[in-house]
Amino acid sequence: MTGTRKLVAISFLLPALVLLGALVVYPIGYSVYRSLFDKSGAGFVGLDNYLTLFSDPTIFTAIKNNLIWVVVAPTVSTALGLIFAVLTERVRWGTAFKLIVFMPMAISMLASGIIFRLVYEQDPDRGVANAAWVTVHDTFAESSGFPRARPLPVHPLKPAGGGAYVTKEPVRAGTPVSLPLIGVPPAQMPKDAAVAKAPAPAADRITGTAWLDFTKGGGGKPNAIDSKESGLKGLEIEAVRDGQVVESTKAAADGTFSFSSKAEGAELRLPASNFREQYNGVNWLGPNVVTPAIIGSYVWMWAGFAMVLIAAGLASLPRELLEAARVDGANEWQVFRRITVPMLAPVLAVVTVTLMINVLKIFDLVFIIAPGDSLDDANVLALQLYQSSFGSDADLGLGSAIAVFLLLLVIPVMLFNIRRMRKEQGR
């Protein structure tokens, strides 16, 4: 090359080099420098900020969650992408399916976070995840008949522990027993409940009525059966003596019930199963499952990305090898496991490593989806970097140390990816 060509090359590269230095090299260098100073930036503290990364419980939780993200999210996304790419290759509507799976990539992280914040709502009437979960649960498990029902202090019932209630006095034959309750919304009353009525006294039996002691519109008297009050049909009642259940029954549509003479002198108990809260699903955004829930939203977005890249690699495979394996008697699972996956290994490695780099700097989804009381449990390094640098108690020294630590985590993965890509180009 002549000197003139070198000058021309430098002239063309100089603007890009200036931008690269101003936007990449200088911020990295200054972050390394700032990480060696204290909160104010005036005192040199050496590596103390880096030691804080592993001694502070909040930051250590962020590191642990980042490890979970790096292991789980790329693996699941790549596995689903591989499955989708292989399965859709043989169906006529495969292109439409790929379009649907890839479509979430067109949505920003912000919009995806808002969507899944609603999907994971605890209320089944709003959250899709809990609506489906509650439907499955209620199919196999009987729900409580009267959640939140309770007696008033003037009622002849008292708490018995564990959410149950018992009569204040033992019951006697010939003396009707009253079991009034309140707190049952009209919508939760049995549809075939009848107007409550007082039982007929019986000399050889224990009789009584369980009813909702509430008159719509007011005007009723507590502890008395009024004309507009309904029986608590299906309310389970137990006769208990010395801690043992002697007999049990359920209230009729009008609330009446009766026990044999075996219940003489026993207490009547309303077990806690009558009042158990309705099943409202899983607290997806609670401290225990918030990280897996957010990873699920990430997989929803990025499985399509993995599928498209893997499908491109799958299209370039020599079909004669696959057909030869089938002719030799290999079934589809053997062809997939012993031929397709090994030949796609370079593509799978690139996809996985690319997603690993992506999740190391995940921020948007965690910040938007995790509620305030679970944010510390879902914390990741990028979010902690933001909070440490720009929060109410900003510490730019610690924030710079987190940034440098993130860079150190990304560099090996990035170098591996570059080396893999160059090796593939060399072939």
TrEMBL record:
A GO biological process held by the record = transmembrane transport
Matching entries from InterPro entries are given as: MetI-like, MetI-like_sf, UgpAE/MalFG_permease
Membrane-topology descriptor: Multi-pass membrane protein
For this protein, the record's PROSITE patterns field holds:
ABC_TM1
Q: Which UniProt keywords apply?
A: Cell membrane, Membrane, Transmembrane, Transmembrane helix, Transport
Is Calcium among the key words of this record?
no
Q: Name one Pfam family in it.
A: BPD_transp_1
Provide a GO CC annotation, any one.
plasma membrane
**Major location (coarse):** membrane
Report the residue ranges that make up the ABC transmembrane type-1 domain in this protein. Answer: 63-417
* Family classification: Belongs to the binding-protein-dependent transport system permease family.
Q: Any idea what this protein is called? A: Alpha-glucoside transport system permease protein
